[in-house]
Amino acid sequence: MSHRHNKKRNVGLLYEFLVRFISTSLVNENDKKSAQALRILKKYFKSGTELYREFRLFNSLVRTKVSSDTVAFAIISEARSLSRKIDRKQLNREKSLLIKDINYTLNEEVYNQQIPEYKAYATVQTLLNSWRSTGDVNLMTTAKYEDQLVSWLTSPVAVVSEEKRDELDADNLVVRIMTNKLNEKYSKVLSDVQRQLIQDYVFSLGNSHADKISKTVRMLREKAILLIDEEMKDLKSESELFQKLKESKSKILTENIEEISDTTISRYLEVSQLIQELEEIQ
Q1: Where are the beta strands (DSSP E) in 148-236?
Q2: Helix, strand, or coil (residue 31)
Q3: DSSP tag of 158
Q4: Taking Cα atoms as reference points, which of 238, 223, 233, 239 lies closest to residue 277?
Q5: What region, left, alpha or beta, does residue 33 occupy, with left being phi > 0 and alpha being psi -120 to 50 degrees?
Q6: Average pLDDT for runs of 10 along the chain of length 282
Q7: How far apart (Å, rounded) are the C-alpha atoms in residues 205 and 48?
Q8: Where are the domains of the chain?
């Protein structure tokens, strides 16, 4: 088995390259490029894909820090087992489509982002490839990389300044920049709830934000129904406003909010606006 590392097929690097490209594009006010890169990121790194499964496994190995070699070896053993459950052919197919989309839509600059943890990223991807390889495996070389990973997992977390942490944490950088741009552009139009809903949706990507979105949508739904019922009490059933509120209530109650999509977010931005209007008149 060849241990030659290909950065364009390293799932962790691909994710970081896209995130940092988005942040750079936003800083340079190239909204078109940032939107294209974000679309690619959300399309390929979505829950349910083999690419996302490998990314989650990859990310856990890169981000986890433990206090002993014993725990590190246990983590590696579990990761080895999980890596073999990933559909290798489907994963390679998804990576090829992702790379093709990046090359066609963006440009080679995407791959030129500087990643401080590049060596660790290369080690983890090489091991993932080795663990699920169906061909001949050089056990000595694999053991060498596993030993390097143990050193990485047990290495102390570097203490850095807040300013330096912001520079290194590309995910937070993107969130901060996009939030600032959103606030500047829509501060007089969107409410705090609407801005937060958009921000959470943009950065959901199958993580904790997704649960937060669902919780927010359910909260808006319940609040809207409550306010509509309260307003309808003081209206005659034949009035035009009563009928409009009745129709809105029926639509809200019958809408599917289990699957969060662009349509759902757009709809609940409207629901949030309705809530605001009802609160103002009550």
Answers
A1: none
A2: helix
A3: P
A4: 223
A5: alpha
A6: 74 91 80 87 89 90 82 84 91 95 88 87 91 76 87 74 46 53 55 72 56 85 91 86 89 83 75 85 70
A7: 11
A8: 7-158, 190-281
